Amino acid sequence: MAFTLSIDEFVIAFFTSGPTAITFPIRVYSMIRFGVTPVINAVAAVVLVISFASILLAVRLARPRVAGGIGPVI
Predict the structure, then answer these.
(1) CA distances (Å), origin 25, targets 22, 38, 47, 51, 72
(2) Which of 20, 21, 22, 56 is the 20 to 30 A CA-CA neighbour of 10?
(3) What is the pLDDT of residues 11-50, one digit of tens each?
(4) In the predicted model, is pLDDT for residue 69 greater than 70?
(5) Closest CA to 43 of 62, 60, 30, 58
(6) Is 10 in contact with 25 (CB distance < 8 Å)?
(7) pTM (whole model) above 0.70
(8) Cβ partners under 8 Å of residue 13, min gap 6
(9) How buried is 7 (Cβ within 10 angstroms: 0-12 exposed, 13-18 middle, 19+ buried)?
(10) How far apart, in whole angstroms, are the C-alpha atoms of residue 16 and residue 66?
(11) How far apart are CA 32 and CA 40, in angstroms?
(12) In the 8-state DSSP scheme, what is residue 66?
């Protein structure tokens, strides 16, 4: 949740970070300013895969179990 909010609140992170602290959204923004490179595409793909995996894991853990072990278990 904190990771998603940190990307969503780029403006706040940009103005409140110190000169020595470089957050992930600020680093990505500084890389994009000079043009989109394969590194940016790879970072976006990794973030997308991690997000989907986290969502699938949360859905799987939140699914109620059927008593007696009978029923669909995916």
Answers:
(1) 8, 17, 12, 15, 40
(2) 56
(3) 777 787 777 878 777 888 888 888 888 988 898 888 889 8
(4) no
(5) 30
(6) yes
(7) no
(8) 6, 23, 25, 26
(9) middle
(10) 48
(11) 7
(12) P
66 pLDDT band, cuts 50/70/90, is: low
Q: What is the dihedral of CA 13, 16, 21, 25, to 10 degrees?
A: 10
Provide the angle, in degrees to the nearest 10, between the axes of the packed helices 24-32 and 38-62: 140
Instruction: Provide the 8-state DSSP code for 21.
Output: -
pLDDT at 36: 83
Task: Give the tokens for residue 52.
Answer: 């989907």
Which residues, 6 or more positions from 3, have their beta carbon under 8 angstroms from its beta carbon? Answer: 24
Helices (H), 1-74: 2-8, 10-16, 24-32, 38-62
